[in-house]
Write a sequence for this structure.
């Protein structure tokens, strides 16, 4: 099965917690703090595997999670970093962040590894909170959450030349003749159901990749036939070979065929329609009506395009065409397909994930503090320790929590709840 689009969810690992610990040594009564830091959570990384040709692997497995960092240990031991999760994708995979719609990576050979979700930082152990006045901190910091993201993967094959045209005009026959590709060839419409790639080398050392896609028909933009879906695979090409059956054996007019397909390309995307194009008049071995062919040649000349007459079946004219294509490609730049954004830019654009966020929910005479920030704060507080409690209070004050509570109408003596811990509000 050929799958060229997929949506997946990636979740980077959470950072490990820092821990509270004190040195216990014989003959040393008051060992200092030695709680180690937590390890970083694993990143989720996409990498190109040139052996892959489709996104099929992503059809059933949707969720990908990197390992969490380990908690810190005694004796200032760092927790182990979570292992990165490496996901393989085929060359030509475009990666979009679903929420923002922004393209963050275009994974071709050149740009072959990309972090799509960063692991959370580890929390600091209590030894890091030691100061001259606070010799024995009894609190440590919780690890930070790893980023979670929904990604749209889109495969756009990497080919230099794209074959487009009506069904049954001989696109696959041409590809098979000039490359080692073995596309299915048969005398009916829509033989080709998925794109095929082949490497063409008619001039030594100047090989290029040619893609054959399913045939197009009028109304493809509206979903007729196999539709437009496969055109994305010729979007990266630098040159289009528009193949037309000029034999008239199917009773159609080549000029009309050409115009219909051109119209479909235009509807798909103007950039694609204006790509350098060579018209390939095929099946010249079957020519019935010379006049039809002459009219077609005159028409293409008026369009200002180059035309090659070939027979993909007998090979007549094919070599000249491929030599011409090779020469043209030498002068056609490889344009980047899309404007992409770096992960850093995307992170700036995103509604900032705030690991310190604290929400206040008002209930019946009780105000509840929730959110990732409060969970981390609670982890980082030792409620039996005066010093730690003061730090806790100072933190809430600095974050403007008391002010927010007052704005919400809290009165002296009313209850503030944090998880299963409650205290009375006094200013
Ligand atoms: N006589 C003759 N027959 C040809 C030529 N090129 C292709 N054919 C025949 O035309 C039929 C269609 O060829 P394909 O290569 O499958 O055509 P296609 O354009 O790939 O068709 P779809 O995949 O259906 O879009 C096959 O029977 C081929 O053998 C040619 O130059 N001369
Ligand atoms: Mg075909």
């Amino acid at each position: 099965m050929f799958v060229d689009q997929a949506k997946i969810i990636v979740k980077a690992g959470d950072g490990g917690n820092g821990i509270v610990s004190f040195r216990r040594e014989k003959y040393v009564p008051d060992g200092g703090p030695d709680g180690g830091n937590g390890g970083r959570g694993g990143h989720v990384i996409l990498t190109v595997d040139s052996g892959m040709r489709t996104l099929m692997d992503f059809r059933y497995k949707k969720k990908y999670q990197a390992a969490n960092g380990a908690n810190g240990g005694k004796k200032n031991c760092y927790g182990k970093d979570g292992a990165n999760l490496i996901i393989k994708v085929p060359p030509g995979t475009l990666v979009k962040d679903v929420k923002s719609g922004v393209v963050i990576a275009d994974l071709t050979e050149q740009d072959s590894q990309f972090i799509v979700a960063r692991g959370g930082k580890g929390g600091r152990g209590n030894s890091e909170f030691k100061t001259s006045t606070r010799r024995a901190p009894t609190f440590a910091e919780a690890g930070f959450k790893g980023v979670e993201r929904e990604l749209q993967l889109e495969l756009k094959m990497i080919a230099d030349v794209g074959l487009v045209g009506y069904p049954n005009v001989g696109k696959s026959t041409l590809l098979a003749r000039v490359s080692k590709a073995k596309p299915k060839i048969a005398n009916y419409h829509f033989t080709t159901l998925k794109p095929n790639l082949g490497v063409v080398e008619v001039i030594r050392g100047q090989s290029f990749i040619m893609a054959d896609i399913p045939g197009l028909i009028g109304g493809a933009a509206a979903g007729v036939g196999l539709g437009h879906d496969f055109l994305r695979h010729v979007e990266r090409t630098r040159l289009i070979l528009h193949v037309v059956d000029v034999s008239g054996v199917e009773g159609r007019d080549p000029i009309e065929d050409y115009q219909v397909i051109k119209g479909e390309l235009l509807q798909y995307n103007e950039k694609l329609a204006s790509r350098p194009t060579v018209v390939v008049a095929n099946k010249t071995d079957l020519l019935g009506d010379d006049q039809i062919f002459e009219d077609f040649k005159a028409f293409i000349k008026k369009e200002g395009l180059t035309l090659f007459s070939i027979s993909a079946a007998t090979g007549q004219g094919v070599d000249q065409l491929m030599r011409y294509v090779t020469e043209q490609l030498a002068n056609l730049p490889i344009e980047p397909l899309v404007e992409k954004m770096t992960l850093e830019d995307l992170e700036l654009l995103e509604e900032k994930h705030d690991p310190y966020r604290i929400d206040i929910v008002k209930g019946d005479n009780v105000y509840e503090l929730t959110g990732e920030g409060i969970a981390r704060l609670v982890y980082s507080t030792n409620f039996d320790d005066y010093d730690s409690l003061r730090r806790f209070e100072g933190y809430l004050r600095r974050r403007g929590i008391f002010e927010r509570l007052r704005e919400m109408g809290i009165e002296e003596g009313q209850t503030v709840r944090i998880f299963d811990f409650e205290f009375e509000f006094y200013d």
Notes: The radius of gyration is 32 Å. The CA atoms of residues 95 and 153 lie 5 Å apart. The chain has a mean pLDDT of 87. Residues 171-172, 183, 191-192, 212 surround magnesium ion (ligand 2) (CB under 6 Å).
